[in-house]
């Protein structure tokens, strides 16, 4: 068996489709982002918690390694691989692929979250020191980074035996560095086990919740009880993860699944960036406890509620329209016909801004940071980063929709001029 050479012949047709800075981004990002994760974890536990301190305080070798870390990480991934394969929940089909087929996906991520919760409660009840996750954050992050590079290397090598129609349109440029980063194969599978779909919503996303709970238990170890600020952060982010898993089927139509290849960009994001960068607020609160007034708590809870309402309602409206445009909840909404045969929503939530779900996401992100107070910039890293990420993602969406829908998209943009923030952007 030899690598599929036809895929490499597509190189010239995709040279102009490079994202994230092309070759330069593919060289810098895989080095910069892992260091950023380690830096942010180190800063979150320092008394100063200053991201602007220079030179930064670097962790020692002893702080970066613990033999327990790889055991826990690999065991966690194996647990969720087993839960993924369990015959529970329904099976859904993805969108039609270039060869006319549709892949099948198990919709059982919420079951995995529930089983994880039961196991954690059992371990805590038996006296397991879950708060020790605070000490293991750096070693676990190091192991997750190592696994990300190893899995990305495996995905890159195996992609040369994939048929040409199975490659991502933007991931087979012939530039090894860029293709390793962006991902050559669209839906790499081992049998029926879809590697990208598994990593997207399972070990990293649920791992984020577990790390948050570990930070809460560490606060209990230090102070006897969790603070209101810590409870808010844990509750808000648990709701977000539970919502994503409860609505797992919706991920089958997202850019990550439909468009992007599975390379280092998504592997690292799923397995390392999400659990260890998104849990910064909880890690910060362990060393920097905050006292919140009742009014502050009410305002923060209301803000998160508003963000979640916008996020959930707009996503539900979009997903319902995609599944059944004749459903009573969306049938009366105004639409624009396109040359592809599809229609674009131009009223309801999607008539307010072009990405109301992103707006809700950012409102929630702000609510997650506010319990940490205003003494340091670090807890607001997530909302700053997420704003940049969503603006970049919106720009990618914009270019793809403009190419796909042509004049219909121009008409839609005139009808809905604001992209994310009404009257601002």
From TrEMBL:
Among the GO molecular function terms of this UniProt record, one is: Delta14-sterol reductase activity
A single Gene Ontology CC term = nuclear inner membrane
Q: Where in the cell is it found?
A: Endomembrane system; Endoplasmic reticulum membrane; Microsome membrane
The UniProt keywords, alphabetically, are: Cholesterol biosynthesis, Cholesterol metabolism, Endoplasmic reticulum, Lipid biosynthesis, Lipid metabolism, Membrane, Oxidoreductase, Steroid biosynthesis, Steroid metabolism, Sterol biosynthesis, Sterol metabolism, Transmembrane, Transmembrane helix
Looking up Gene3D superfamilies in the UniProt record yields: 1.20.120.1630
Q: Which residues cross the membrane?
A: 20-44, 64-86, 107-130, 136-157, 224-242, 262-280, 292-311, 365-391
Annotated membrane topology: Multi-pass membrane protein
Its Enzyme Commission number(s) read: 1.3.1.70
Q: Which Pfam families match?
A: ERG4_ERG24
Which pathway, metabolic or otherwise, does it act in?
Steroid biosynthesis; cholesterol biosynthesis
Biological processes per GO annotation? cholesterol biosynthetic process
Q: In which family does this protein belong, per the annotation?
A: Belongs to the ERG4/ERG24 family.
The protein's role, per its UniProt record: Catalyzes the reduction of the C14-unsaturated bond of lanosterol, as part of the metabolic pathway leading to cholesterol biosynthesis.
The identity of this protein, by name, is Delta(14)-sterol reductase TM7SF2
Q: What is the lineage of its organism?
A: Eukaryota, Metazoa, Chordata, Craniata, Vertebrata
């Amino acid at each position: 068996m030899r690598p599929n050479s036809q895929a490499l012949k597509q190189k010239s047709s995709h040279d102009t489709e490079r994202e994230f800075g092309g070759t330069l981004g593919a060289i810098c990002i895989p080095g910069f982002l892992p260091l950023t994760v380690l830096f942010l974890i180190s800063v979150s536990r320092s008394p100063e918690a200053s991201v602007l301190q220079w030179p930064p305080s670097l962790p020692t070798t002893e702080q970066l390694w613990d033999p327990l870390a790889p055991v826990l990480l690999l065991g966690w991934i194996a647990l969720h691989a087993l839960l993924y394969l369990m015959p529970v929940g329904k099976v859904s089909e993805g969108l039609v692929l270039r060869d006319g087929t549709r892949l099948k996906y198990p919709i059982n991520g919420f079951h995995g979250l529930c089983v994880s919760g039961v196991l954690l409660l059992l371990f805590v009840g038996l006296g397991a020191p879950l708060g020790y996750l605070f000490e293991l954050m750096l070693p676990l992050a190091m192991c997750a980074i190592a696994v990300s590079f190893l899995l990305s290397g495996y995905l890159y090598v195996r992609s040369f035996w994939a048929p040409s129609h199975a490659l991502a349109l933007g991931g087979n440029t012939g530039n090894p560095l860029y293709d390793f980063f962006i991902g050559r194969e669209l839906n790499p599978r081992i049998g029926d086990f879809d590697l990208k779909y598994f990593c997207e919503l399972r070990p990293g996303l649920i791992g984020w919740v577990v790390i948050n709970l570990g930070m809460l238990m560490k606060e209990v170890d230090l102070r006897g009880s969790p603070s209101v600020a810590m409870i808010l952060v844990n509750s808000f982010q648990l709701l977000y993860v539970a919502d994503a898993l409860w609505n797992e089927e919706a991920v089958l139509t997202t850019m990550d699944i439909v468009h992007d290849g599975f390379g280092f960009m998504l592997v690292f994001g799923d397995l390392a960036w999400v659990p260890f960068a998104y849990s910064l607020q909880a890690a910060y609160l362990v060393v920097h406890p905050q006292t919140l007034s009742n009014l502050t708590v009410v305002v923060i809870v209301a803000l998160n509620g508003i963000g979640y309402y916008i996020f959930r309602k707009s996503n539900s409206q979009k997903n319902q329209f995609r599944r059944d445009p004749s459903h009573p909840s969306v049938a009366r909404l105004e639409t624009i016909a396109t040359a592809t045969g599809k229609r674009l929503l131009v009223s309801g939530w999607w008539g307010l801004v072009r990405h109301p779900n992103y707006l809700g996401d950012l409102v929630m992100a702000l609510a997650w940071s506010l319990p940490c107070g205003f003494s340091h910039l670090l807890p607001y890293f997530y909302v700053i980063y997420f704003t940049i990420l969503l603006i970049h993602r919106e720009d990618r969406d914009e270019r793809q929709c403009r190419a796909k829908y042509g004049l219909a998209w121009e008409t839609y943009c005139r009808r809905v001029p604001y992209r994310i923030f009404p009257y601002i952007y």
